[in-house]
């Protein structure tokens, strides 16, 4: 996202465009990264329901991994996964 | 032009709101503001206004309700004082940062403790950094006029900031004075239709209010508020001028009295300015070259106007009806800053006075003039306290 000048921003920090959170990449906030073991995963999609950042990639009703541009590494998915298929690893380790 | 009415300051403000007919008034009563919301509640109950009148459970809630209502697209007014304003403090910043043109009357009252219900400016001065425009009135006429003008200033597209119009607790809020109101129809035309900017209730143009901003955008939004406050200076002056054209009543951001040839000047905010003019008249009759300066606008601060008014004077006393404990009064350093770069700056000293409603006597002010002339005042002085 380009860094706008004060004079080009909507006043009062109003957000005037719906759904623009996708333009704001929060992945850099992450200190831990989720890693899925697809051997254990049952594709129940609990992680997709709970992820606060819409960062679980789902294709054809199957859990396909994480959108790391936006995943903040909060670990909620790992905590919720009934199959214990997600582990949080140190970022960059 | 309408006849005179005899009202106290609070009643005059409630009357101005009745003429403005705001969409929402949300408030919590507190002395010495209570008469404003009591009278207005009566207007609402009698169907004399169409306002949605909300009794909040606290001042924090009252201001939060005002913020919600203003963001939804309504014209909003409220009133408070003292601890009530202090309790609102957190959300005052939200109102200005969301650029909501809320109008609030403040009946200036001391802060506890010891608990005290009488006049000083500690409450509003404590809110000076919150991004609200601050206007101070001297009497009932100004209470009424400032209340009306506040809507125009706040709602100006170059400003879009909340405005606080302040009057001295009890001295103005509870004293009956003659004032001249404006006819209902003229007020209606003067105030006009409220023009919201992207109101929450406009679902075709969905808007998010009050989002999080990080270290990458917070500063830019603060800068926007600073720019809006800068524009407010011109807008306040234009509003005063238009108001003069409408009513014949002339106001300025600073108002001098017998200033032109004065050597010694006392500067004050609020009702004390009236007492000062009386003292100036008395001393002028004795041939003393004294004058006074009344500050009407505290935020934005009129640095240039103050410098122009006080340059070349021999000595100036800045009266502060509030105290930043451990420093000086809040007005003093700003007046010093206004004059620091002047070629011919006066000696400037500070008088802290009138705290907790301590009476301000003409003799005491005459004594301050005497100290100015003799050069016997310290940098920071106290007037009227038993030391
Ligand atoms: S919650 Fe666990 S088991 Fe269910 S889809 Fe997500 S990773 Fe797979
Ligand atoms: S770590 Fe948090 S943000 Fe990242 S995918 Fe899991 S739940 Fe979503």
Structure commentary:
The complex is a heterodimer of chains A (93) and B (387). Chain A has 93 residues and is α+β, with helices and mostly antiparallel strands. Chain A has a domain at 27-90: Alpha-Beta Plaits. Chain A has helices at 46-50, 76-80, and strands at 32-36, 56-59, 62-66, 86-90. Chain A has a two-stranded antiparallel ribbon with strand order 1-4. Chain A has a two-stranded antiparallel sheet with strand order 2-3. In chain A, a hairpin with a 2-residue loop joins strand 2 and strand 3 (62-66). The radius of gyration of chain A is 16 Å and the shape is elongated. The model of chain A has no long low-confidence stretch (mean pLDDT 94). Chain B has 387 residues and is α/β, with parallel strands linked by helices. Chain B has two domains: 5-247, Rossmann fold (3-Layer(aba) Sandwich), CATH 3.40.50.970; 254-383, 3-Layer(aba) Sandwich (Rossmann fold), CATH 3.40.50. Helix content of chain B is 41%, strand content 18%. Chain B has helices at residues 9-20, 34-45, 59-72, 82-97, 122-125, 140-155, 184-191, 218-247, 272-285, 303-310, 331-340, 362-374; strands at residues 5-7, 24-27, 52-55, 76-80, 103-108, 133-136, 163-168, 177-179, 254-257, 264-269, 290-295, 297-299, 315-320, 347-353, 380-383. In chain B, helix 1 packs parallel to helix 2, helix 3 (59-72) runs parallel beside helix 4 (82-97) and helix 9 (272-285) packs across helix 12 (362-374). The radius of gyration of chain B is 21 Å and the shape is globular. The chains are: A alpha+beta (93), B alpha/beta (387). At the A-B interface, loops of A face helix 8 of B. Bound molecules: iron/sulfur cluster (SF4) (2 copies).
Features:
heterodimer, A: 93 residues, alpha+beta, Alpha-Beta Plaits, two-stranded antiparallel ribbon, 2 helices, 4 strands, elongated, B: 387 residues, alpha/beta, Rossmann fold, seven-stranded mixed sheet, six-stranded mixed sheet, 15 strands, 18% strand, binds iron/sulfur cluster
